[in-house]
């Protein structure tokens, strides 16, 4: 027996969709404005997971230029039938106010580690699309439908419509099969079939602290659906568990007849209840009770800190602490912002270095150069070695702790007005910009620097070195509570991502001056 520890995928891994293909397990999570789209993982034992290449690696599959913060890829659904993997995803173009622009697409492959097809457009009626493969071979799309006419009834219900693989389009009429329990925000539908019932698993209560996993069932695919009397997983009225905001479930079985649900959680820290790691992926064993409803193994609704797997153990090499960029493709744990690496930099222009070409500002929603990885621990440190020779104050490159373009910290090198180069720190806290330093710190003619950030729960501190040995603090201790969904909601906005640490380069003069990153080191300190 193996014991898994929740969250099983730490850091920004929301909206998990878990499937089994014989004795292999695959899991997909949302990536929002980060490219490549959709994060895939593979496991043999449900405890150890290896990252796989992104299925959406081409702009023709996913164009994120101009996508709003927390737009882009929402809630992908991975499925498998007759030798083909299916991936359905939403590419959200707008979701502020009463309207949402949510085109849904389908891509396929016979090799999950290989190339995926060009997308097939499905519909735009809502988000969280999912594909159900019935026993008779017919396929059905389910998704929530958005009703802009009333903010109180914006989640209109779960729609179903048949999909024709031959015609590569939806056919027939879309039917509303489930409006939820009355708890509100019914979304994240997945259909399953067992013992003559169609089971519909949904999320309710919104993505914050009233989130939960709910089940309904019907003898008919088109309903009516009967709701379970209680959620499968929820922490709505119980602030004690480490895992909060639990919801968005996805069900699988194992060859020995056990069942597991993958779901998301947020782990708030301190009395501010901020989840700086974003929403993470957890797994719990579930059982079917005598009435044909799912229950957690312990019979309750609160998420477990651990779970057991009875599968043979298969481990994978860990992600290395140091990346020296002796590669020709970006490792899968790194993401780029809205654009593929080919449109912002290169790993081959100077072999052994990540070269980023300066483009638009770090606040741009279009063409900026930023490569980063998830923060997956409350205490961690990251260090980059960078070569950069700016000639103008509009040219910048450095190390960023980045939630989105509204919430970030940026230690960067630029040209000083009085000659030489200087380090500056820029912070954006929702709608407010500020600089912790009074001006910059002059580093003379230095063009090779080591930049470091240490994160301790809700604070962070930068330092720099000219020799890689002696590091000098810069900017003091900074409050990092803005690196969270909760910071957005506090001012009446929506945020749904998580914290990344990465490398960035800008050239606001338009000359595309490049910065070369020799190494990126990330160490968990908890």
Question: Summarize this, please?
Answer:
With about 525 residues, the protein is mainly β. It is built from one helix and 40 strands.
Question: What attributes characterize this protein structure?
Answer:
8-stranded antiparallel β-sheet; 1 helix; mainly beta; Tachylectin-2, Chain A; 1% helix; Jelly Rolls; 2 domains; 526 residues; 9-stranded antiparallel β-sheet; 48% strand; 40 strands; single chain
Q: Estimate nothing, just give the exact number of structural domains.
A: 2
Q: How would you characterize the largest beta sheet?
A: 9 strands, antiparallel
Counted beta strands: 40
CATH class category name of the largest domain: Mainly Beta
Q: From the alpha-carbon coordinates, what is the Rg to the nearest angstrom?
A: 23 Å
Topology summary:
Layout: E1 2-5, E2 17-21, E3 24-29, E4 34-35, E5 39-43, E6 50-52, E7 72-81, E8 84-92, E9 104-109, E10 120-123, E11 130-133, E12 139-146, E13 155-164, E14 169-178, E15 187-194, E16 197-204, E17 212-218, E18 226-227, E19 233-234, E20 244-253, E21 259-266, E22 279-288, E23 294-296, E24 306-309, E25 322-323, E26 334-337, E27 345-346, E28 354-357, E29 369-374, E30 379-387, E31 395-404, E32 407-415, E33 421-429, E34 432-434, E35 441-442, E36 448-456, E37 459-465, E38 472-479, H1 485-490, E39 500-507, E40 514-524
Antiparallel strand pairs: 1-24, 2-3, 3-5, 4-26, 5-6, 7-8, 8-9, 9-10, 11-12, 12-13, 13-14, 15-16, 16-17, 17-18, 17-19, 20-21, 21-22, 22-23, 25-40, 26-29, 27-28, 28-40, 29-39, 30-36, 30-40, 31-32, 31-39, 32-33, 33-34, 33-35, 36-37, 37-38
């Amino acid at each position: 027996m193996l014991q898994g520890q929740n969250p099983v995928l730490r850091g920004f891994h929301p909206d998990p969709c878990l499937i089994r293909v014989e004795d292999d397990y695959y899991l997909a999570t949302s990536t929002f404005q980060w490219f490549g789209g959709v994060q895939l993982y593979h496991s043999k034992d449900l405890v150890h997971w290896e990252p796989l290449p992104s299925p959406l690696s081409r702009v023709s599959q996913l164009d994120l230029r101009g996508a709003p913060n927390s737009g882009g890829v929402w809630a992908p659904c991975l499925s498998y039938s007759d030798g083909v993997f299916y991936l359905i995803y939403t590419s959200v173009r707008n979701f502020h106010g009463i309207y949402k622009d949510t085109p849904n697409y389908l891509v396929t492959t016979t090799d999950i580690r290989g190339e995926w097809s060009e997308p097939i457009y499905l519909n735009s009626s809502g988000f969280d699309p999912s594909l159900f493969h019935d026993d008779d071979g017919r396929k059905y799309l389910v998704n929530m439908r958005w009703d802009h006419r009333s903010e109180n009834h914006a989640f209109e219900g779960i729609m179903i419509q048949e999909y024709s693989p031959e015609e590569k389009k939806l056919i027939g009429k879309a039917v509303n099969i489930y409006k939820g329990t009355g708890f509100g925000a019914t979304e994240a539908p997945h259909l399953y079939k067992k013992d003559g019932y169609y089971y519909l698993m949904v999320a309710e209560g919104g993505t914050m602290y009233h989130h939960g996993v709910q089940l309904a069932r019907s003898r008919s695919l088109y309903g009516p659906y009967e709701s379970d009397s209680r959620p499968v997983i929820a922490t709505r009225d119980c602030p004690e568990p480490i895992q909060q905001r639990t919801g968005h479930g996805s069900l699988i079985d194992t060859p020995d007849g056990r069942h597991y649900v993958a779901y998301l959680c947020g782990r708030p820290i301190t009395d501010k209840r901020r989840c700086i790691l974003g929403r993470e992926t957890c797994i719990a064993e579930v059982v079917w009770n005598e009435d044909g409803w799912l229950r957690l193994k312990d019979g309750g609704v609160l998420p477990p800190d651990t779970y057991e797997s009875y599968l043979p153990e298969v481990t994978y090499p860990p992600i290395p602490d140091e990346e020296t960029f002796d590669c020709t493709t970006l490792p899968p744990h790194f993401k780029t912002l809205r654009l593929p690496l080919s449109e912002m930099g290169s790993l081959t222009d100077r072999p052994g270095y990540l070269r980023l070409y300066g483009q638009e500002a770090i606040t741009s929603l279009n063409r900026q150069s930023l490569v980063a990885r998830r923060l997956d621990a409350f205490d961690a440190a990251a260090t980059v070695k960078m070569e950069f020779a700016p000639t103008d104050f509009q040219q910048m490159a450095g190390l960023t702790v980045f939630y989105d373009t509204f919430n970030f910290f940026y230690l960067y090198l630029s040209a000083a007005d009085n000659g030489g180069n200087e380090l500056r720190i820029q912070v954006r806290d929702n709608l407010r910009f500020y600089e912790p330093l009074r001006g910059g710190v002059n580093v003379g003619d230095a063009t090779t620097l080591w930049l470091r950030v240490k994160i301790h729960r809700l604070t962070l501190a930068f330092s720099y070195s000219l020799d890689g040995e002696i590091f000098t603090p810069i900017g003091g201790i900074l409050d990092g509570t803005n690196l969270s969904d909760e910071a957005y909601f506090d001012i009446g906005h929506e945020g749904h991502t998580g914290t990344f640490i990465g490398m960035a380069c800008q050239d606001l003069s338009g000359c595309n001056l490049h910065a070369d990153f020799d190494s990126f080191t990330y160490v968990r300190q908890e």
